Amino acid sequence: MSAITLEQHKPQAHLPALKFALWVAIASMIMMFAALTSAYIVKKAGGNWADFRLPDIFALNTLIVLLSSGTMHLAYLSFKRNHFRTFRISLGVTLGLGLAFIIGQYQGWQSLANIGVHLDGNPSGSFLYVISGVHGLHIAGGLIALLITFVLSLIKSYKPIDELMLETNPDKNTKIQMLATYWHFVDILWVYLFLFFYFNHL
Amino acid sequence: MNQQVDQDHAVQVDHHHDDHHDDHHEHHEQNFIEKYVFSQDHKTIAKQFLITGIFWGVVGGLMSVLFRMQLGFPGESFPILETVLGKWAPGGVISPDFYLALVTMHGTILVFFVLTAGLSGTFANLLIPLQVGARDMASPFLNMLSYWFFFLAGLIMLASLFVETGPANGGWTAYPPLNALPQATIGSGLGMTLWLTSMAVFIISTLLGGLNYVATILNMRTKGLTMTRLPLTIWAIFLTAIIGILSFPVLLSAALLLIFDRSLGTSFYLSEIYIAGEALVNQTGGSAILFQHLFWFLGHPEVYIIILPAMGLVSEVMSVHARKPIFGYMAMVGSILAIAVLSFVVWAHHMFVTGMNPFIGSIFVVVTLIIAVPSAIKVFNWITTLWRGNLRLNAPMLFSIGFVSLFISGGLTGIFLGNSTIDIQLHDTYFVVAHFHIVMGISAFFGMFAGVYHWFPKMFGRFMNNTLGNIHFFTTIIGAYLIFWPMHYIGMAGVPRRYYSYEAFEAFNKFGDISLFVTTVAGIVFIVQMIFIINFFYSIFYGKKVTEKNPWQANTLEWTTPINPGHGNWPGEIPEVHRWPYDYSKPGAAEDFIPQTVPLKAGEKDLGH
Q1: N-to-C CA span, chain B
Q2: Domain count across chain A
Q3: What is the pTM of this model?
Q4: Which residues of chain A neighbour B134 with C-beta distances below 8 Å?
């Protein structure tokens, strides 16, 4: 039997449904962060709350993450319009910005430690570490998906015929779209968290 | 690819409407591992969930028999216990630490492993693709992962039973500071660490499963199957999955913060605590109540995660075996929706004694009592479905009727407990134990039993023995009432739950006879469950064979598949749906059932809308 039928014998994921499942998963992640930030509010209202200045680097990281959302969107658009060179470049830039964000967050933790805010100190600091840490894990998950897509796009670029397959394959388009959706979500999530922390440290 | 042909020939036929593919699948067997172990077929995954659930049901049930022995025969020596449990039962008497561990693990195992994974996991996997007309779940791979994460969670929990310091013993609710400080109790060390790890893995399993269930139901229904033509099983499972997706992440957050408090020196939940006269370092004003809020934000929806699938199964089974349409289909759907929404705004009724503002308490009282409305609508509809039905009193039907009886009995005491003024008296007494065991424990089990007896022919192509099923039903329902009815009275007398022994309390010690009676019945009921288990496993291999596709004369789509469907479910095209699933005894019809696949006759009205 031909290679095409071979594919059909494997249990296939139903892509439109998976795209929907991603939104459901996002709802579930929102609940997790809603729980953490509500716990923050409840604990803060309970008193015994140390105040400190939020390190500036978190604002810079917020800009980086917003920028990476822009490049991700550019990657998505250029894939759709078959501009594979732009696609690869903007995907690579997104990956770089994502890594820069993670490093920036780590720098943020270091500046927290420098002003005497430690994980095992007052809950006001512990919350900041835990929430940004859990968010960092979500970013890391996105980075792994980005890296795989980026590497695949580089390999494919040496074989024009594969590139053509990539272009004509609607499944791939859905996958890129899902990657972009997730990436925008974790970015917007950080913007929310940053504003949340910012207004709680005024 | 040959290995895949047998499994997937149905999928293939869908793509190529030729016959020439059929001659391939007879020659090739899938290997054992792909077919039975790492299977991506939703039907196999359902069986894996069910059998794992049965295993945990036996373990959790046996634990309750063990701690009931301590309660029924306080301080009496049973040398066999020392032989089996070793240092946990010195001199044949269960030690206090191990007694608490048994209570904790019984709760954890039954709530999460049996009635969440075992119930939802089994019937969501089995019924969603079959009843919505899909080849498989949205992502068969994630579905398989969901089972194996559950399996891993089970392994970790099982391992915790065998560690030196014993399993977690601070209650299934894992309240801090008791469960946050290793110094607090022996089980709060490694046992609790394993408990938390296991729960985190379990939550991942539930989320992966839930995503699939929701995505499949909303996106992969066959042609003609509108949401208002869905069987109530699917509606119930659908909202169960949504509740799980929105509430389990909150438990994950709660557990995460607890893990940090335990291992990394934070103090989210720990206020200033002195142990042996010394203040704990670093513990600067956390809040133990914060954990309770986060925990019960999952904990309360969790009871609906347990009971809603049972309600769905009962609705379907009851309609089939009463040969009548379910009474008030839209009211049933509406009440499931109402229960799902309300389940998120009542959590603090578990916390009336935490010193909360009585005004806030009264809000939670009102919202809690409103849940009685959709619950009563459902009960009314089940009873009116039975009313003048052409009842087949077989095992699945008996268990469905038993479910309604138990749900009423247990639900009524919920009205007592939902009132903060009464709850303050009854809190943490046997009244609470009796209430939730009847309304969500035993009821959910009855829904599950009804489902297993009813869908067993679809799962294994054979019937379970009905006589044994009837014996199982009558002894279990009489036994369940005999166990839990007396607990209401001793609860009203103020006897607190979770105590190791009441010998030191003049006021409670006089209920020793009742305790002994309850323990005796509990032992008998546990042994009777072995009838079910023997019946189940015997029937898989030697049960009466199913000879027709639709042995119950039911309307839903799963009965249009072959008796032993392959992966892909339908050998030809997926059937199209033309009507709602409850056309039983429709006036003017030749037979007393009309499957969903039968087109509407000219001038016939679809009753679904």
Answers
A1: 45
A2: 1
A3: 0.91
A4: 14
Scanning every residue of chain B, which has its alpha carbon at the shortest distance from the alpha carbon of A49?
B285
Q: Is B28 on the interface with A (CB under 8 A)?
A: no
Nearest to B552 by CA among B325, B392, B400, B327: B392
| Contact at CB, A24 and B282, closer than 8 angstroms | no
- Describe the crossing of helices B122-132 and B190-219 by its angle, rounded to 10 degrees: 10
CA separation, residue B587 to residues B325, B592, B605 (Å): 12, 9, 12
What is the biggest distance separating any 2 CA atoms in chain A, rounded to whole angstroms? 71
Residue A80's domain is classified under what CATH number? 1.20.120.80
CB contact under 8 A, B267 and A126: yes
Q: How far apart are CA B379 and CA B387, in angstroms?
A: 12
pLDDT at A2: 36
pLDDT > 60? residue A11? no
Phi, psi of B274 (to 5 degrees): -110, 130
* B30 Cβ under 8 Å from any chain A Cβ: no
Domains of chain B from N-terminus onward: 37-230 (1.20.210.10), 392-546 (no CATH), 558-609 (no CATH)
**Average pLDDT in the B536-547 region?**
96
Closest CA to B417 of B323, B466, B332, B350: B350
Sequence-ordered alpha helix ranges (H) in chain A = 3-9, 15-45, 57-80, 84-114, 123-157, 160-168, 170-200
User: Chain A residues with CB-CB distance to B under 8 A?
Assistant: 1, 5-6, 8-14, 16-18, 20-21, 24-25, 27-29, 31-32, 34-36, 39, 42-43, 46-48, 119-123, 126-127, 130, 134
Q: Do A16 and B219 touch (CB under 8 A)?
A: yes
Between CA B490 and CA B430 the distance in angstroms is 6
Q: Model confidence over B82-111: pLDDT tens digits? A: 999 989 999 999 999 999 999 999 999 999
Output the pLDDT for position B472: 97
Q: What is the CA radius of gyration of chain B?
A: 25
Are A120 and B282 inside 8 Å of each other by CB? yes
| Residues present in chain B in total | 609
What's the pLDDT at A170? 64
Q: Which phi and psi angles does B19 have, rounded to 5°?
A: -95, -15
Residue of chain A with shortest Cα separation from B212: A21
User: Which residue range forms the structural domain that includes residue A116?
Assistant: 54-200
A188 assigned to some structural domain: yes
Contacts of A13 in chain B (CB under 8 A): 138-141
Question: Is A117 a domain residue?
Answer: yes
What mean pLDDT do residues A2-30 have? 71
Instruction: Assign B282 a pLDDT band (cuts: 50, 70, 90).
Output: low
Cα separation of B172 and B187, whole Å? 12
- Look at residue A34 and tell me if it is in a domain: no
Closest residue on chain B to A119 (Cα) = B266
The mean per-residue pLDDT over the stretch B297-306 comes to: 94
Residue A129 inside a domain? The answer is yes
Phi/psi of residue A13, each to 5°? -75, 145
Percent of chain A predicted with pLDDT > 70? 86
Query: Which pLDDT belongs to residue A50?
Result: 87
| Chain A hits for B266, Cβ within 8 Å | 119-120, 123, 126, 130
pLDDT surpassing 70 at residue B283: no
From the CA of A25, how many Å to the nearest CA of chain B? 7
Reported as a pLDDT band with limits 50, 70 and 90, residue A4 is very low
B400-430 pLDDT, tens digit each: 999 999 999 999 999 999 999 999 999 999 9
Q: pLDDT tens digit string along B360-404?
A: 999 999 999 999 999 999 999 999 999 999 999 999 999 999 999
